[in-house]
Design brief:
GO terms for molecular function: SNAP receptor activity. It contains 1 helix and no strands. By secondary structure, the protein is an all-alpha fold.
């Protein structure tokens, strides 16, 4: 009888080990499936990140081109404004110069006219 008991217990242990091995295989398979899912998800996220990065790169390139074009236009406008400002300053100097001479002539004419007026019409007594 003791030998029979030991054979039964060995069979019980073998079936427990088989069940344990089956459960272990199932757990390992589940973990492997989860790792594959995570790897696929990481791959899709990496692709998405790459696409987003390329799109952002294109937008930044377009913005840089727009900024450089705007900078060139601003430089051209600044140069034109500087030229026109110089022309206006020269014109203003000429106008002030002529205006000054005209006013000086008018004042001298009025002064001489007053002197002649006083000489022609002396004081009444």
């Amino acid at each position: 009888m003791p030998i029979l008991f030991s054979l039964c217990s060995c069979r019980g242990l073998a079936s427990d080990e088989k069940q344990s091995a089956v459960e272990l295989d199932a757990v390992l398979q589940h973990h492997q499936d989860m790792q594959e899912k995570l790897a696929e998800e990481m791959l899709s996220l990496a692709r998405s990140l790459k696409n987003n990065t390329l799109a952002a790169q294109n937008v930044i390139k377009q913005d840089n081109q727009t900024l450089s074009h705007s900078l060139r236009m601003a430089d051209q406008n600044f140069e034109k404004l500087k030229d026109e400002s110089d022309r206006l300053e020269q014109h203003a100097k000429k106008s002030v110069n002529w205006l000054l001479w005209i006013m000086l002539i008018v004042v001298c004419f009025i002064f001489i006219s007053m002197i002649l007026f006083i000489r022609i019409f002396p004081k009444l007594k």
